[in-house]
Design goal:
Helix content: 10-25%
Distance between the termini: 12 Å
Strand order of the largest sheet: 11-10-9-8-7-6-12
Strand content: 35-45%
Number of helices: 4
Order of helices and strands: EHEHEEEEEEEEHHEE
Number of strands: 12
Shape: globular
Radius of gyration: 19 Å
């Protein structure tokens, strides 16, 4: 979008910032997280933690339709209120640079609270798909259920699958070192099974470039 010649330094801002400067930062790879000015204090404190990461801007933004919106260059993802929906689904397409080429990462996030007694006990699943050029398509599904994280990967090219399979033990160690309980971790050649249709009654937010 239209932007100013001077970008905005990343970090947390307690007051609204100029759109044109923030958009210039997005052009350089930043993520701009905006929130409704009346957002509760605990949620704002959580967003402030994100501002400690490189290339992240956090600021209030009057007039947002969603409580929190994350923006990258050409994409917006809003956090919708889904308290009455046991299943919530977010889908997005994010442009990234891979091997000096602009590629699109397809992401699907699902939260399933249908069997959870507390919101914190919800099951989560994240599906990611990206094209790696000569190495073919790579897909991953990360599931977090009952405090256990499991990862499944599919590589279109058999050589890529072999390369990833040779490093699965390293992935298991990294997950364990992060304090996670690790379940199954596998990589298969080929394509992943077709995703199930989003369940009826799920709260859905879809964002595309």
């Amino acid at each position: 979008g239209a932007h100013a010649p001077i970008w905005l330094n990343c970090g947390y801002y307690p007051s609204p910032v100029p759109n044109e400067n923030a958009v210039h930062s997005l052009e350089h790879g930043a993520v701009w997280i905006t929130y409704q000015p009346d957002l509760d204090e605990d949620s704002v404190d959580t967003l402030k933690d994100f501002a400690e990461e490189p290339k992240v801007i956090v600021s209030p933004y009057p007039g947002l339709e969603a409580p929190v919106v994350a923006s990258t260059w050409g994409n917006h993802l809003g956090a919708v209120k889904v308290a009455d929906a046991p299943v919530a689904v977010w889908r997005m397409e994010l442009p990234v640079m891979v091997a000096r080429e602009l590629q699109t990462i397809y992401v699907r996030i699902e939260r399933d609270a249908s069997a959870a007694e507390e919101p914190a006990d919800s099951a989560w699943a994240v599906d990611v798909r990206v094209n790696l050029g000569a190495r073919g398509d790579l897909a991953a599904r990360v599931s977090y259920v009952g405090g256990v994280i499991s990862t499944a990967l599919w590589a279109e090219e058999s050589t890529t699958a072999e390369l990833i399979a040779g490093r699965l033990d390293e992935l298991r160690r990294d997950l364990a070192d992060a304090g996670l309980s690790v379940g199954s971790v596998h990589c298969w050649p080929g394509r992943p099974p077709p995703p199930e249709e989003d369940r009826i009654g799920a709260a859905l937010l879809e964002v595309r470039a």
